[in-house]
Amino acid sequence: xxxxxxxxxxxxxxxxxxxxxxxxxxxxxxxxxxxxxxxxxxxxxxxxxxxxxxxxxxxxxxxxxxxxxxxxxxxxxxxxxxxxxxxxxxxxxxxxxxxxxxxxxxxxxxxxxxxxxxxxxxxxxxxxxxxxxxxxxxxxxxxxxxxxxxxxxxxxxxxxxxxxxxxxxxxxxxxxxxxxxxxxxxxxxxxxxxxxxxxxxxxxxxxxxxxxxxxxxxxxxxxxx
Length: 225
Known about the structure:
single chain; mainly alpha
């Protein structure tokens, strides 16, 4: 029977850790700034989804359904190569941030919508009867209560965003995935490089997942440490 021997070049990982660290930093940057777009836009879309105004509700629903119905990789290509020919996006990294932010906002909107709808309708009616406008009732009564149920899934959305960010390498953003692809092309050590890539993503998302679980426990106990 033929004998197969798997040899792992651990020295290669030690030699390339700075490149992986730089790629990790880019991944975290893209994900963080995309989240800064996704959260406020998603909150506005989520509130629009439960608005009494049919036009506002329809526009927000159309955005959410349209974006959720498009694969992220297609949206990246469309915004970078299509929209980028019409508007100055500032390069690959800004284009990736805008795309991830717009994409994630649709999912944040659904999280916010479900959180708002989970608040008893009587809370809104009581706030309105006390003289508050609809927006004031949302800001001071509904949203603070909805935050308790939406914060953990919003944190979980950040983990999903980090994993989705691996696709930005398709438009030449020098993130973790592109660093790994370039190293494989120059060293032909696909086993070592892609194993290191998988481990890095796992460690990153595992740590964040543990933080999300702690957050969920905190809010399950009524928000007390």
